[in-house]
Amino acid sequence: MELTVRKTELLRELQFFQGIVERKNTIPILANVLVEADDGAHAVRLAATDLEVGLRSRCAATITKGGALTLPAKKLYEIVRALPDTEVRITQSAAGAVNVTAERFNSRMQTLQRDDFPALPVATGEGTETLPGDILREMVSKTQFAITGEDTRYFLNGALFLFTDRAMSLVATDGHRLALVSSPRDKNEVEATGSEPVAEAHGDADATRVILPKKTLWELARLLGDDVETVKYERGENHLFFDLGGRQLISRMIDAQFPAYERVIPKGNDKRIEFERDRLTSAIKRVALLSSERSRAVKFQIDGGKVEITSSSPEVGEASEVLTVDYDGPALGICFNAQYLLDFMAVAETESVALEFKDELSQAVLSPAGSNGCDYTYVIMPMRI
To answer: Is the pTM of this model over 0.85?
Structure first.
């Protein structure tokens, strides 16, 4: 093999593979990226997988001699990143050694047999759905943090993705909180039909349902750049395929029954407080500095027209901050995990957020106030301290 490629273009593609390959694995070939080039072609093909999630990509290149080889993905990325903005040459000698050179830089890298690289599943092109990239990007950002990565309940290590012809929803939960975001597949439709398509997405028993692994969500978030207008989605027998921006993400499906999340969303929360999002975020961050490192608990002491946010820890001390709000209901106190609140606040995007609650022990609901985008519901369980 012998090819030449621009440093900036190769670096851009190699960045996307860094989350796919694992630094620690028992199969050495899984730390490598597969590089394939055909004689006379104008692009080199790249691929990597950890057997659960895989990625295919292409990069414009001048190919002098075709072939296939594998190289350590992370080390190749580090070398290319350190090079000046110039052309990078990759050549494979008859003895099998691979040289990566640029200007006066020269390196020889160890390689593993291309035949040892696992075959990636191939999409059939049947039953392909077209999804809007901007909406999917927003949905992923609003749910991915609520997925647990350590739960022995396999189905909680992913997010439920469901959609109909008109709408789609994404749901994630770790047992202590739940994030649900829904949207029409065409944003223009919501202006004409109100919230009807949103209700349809997660209320239709015939909606297509799949559980996306946590790693798949994180890689989708990396790949869904502003330049990705549409995503081609296909469901195979055991794998999911996402074509976006000239790249293809391949994911194994989680074969499990997602919990009945609709039952978790409370219907009887009769108390509501609106907060200025930035003000609430700052107050929680300050007060949480003196919360217990183990529980991260902050307490909302609600009384009259104010909410006092407090924390205390026998080891470090206590803190409080008072926010003025519009509330004339009964006084009560609710404890929350500060990080769970901040996760929501970071993606809510609106100037104000609403907290709806019933009492000290029932699930509370956070939602953006006055949002014109996706319908976003965040259910959080109070803490018992």
So the answer is: yes
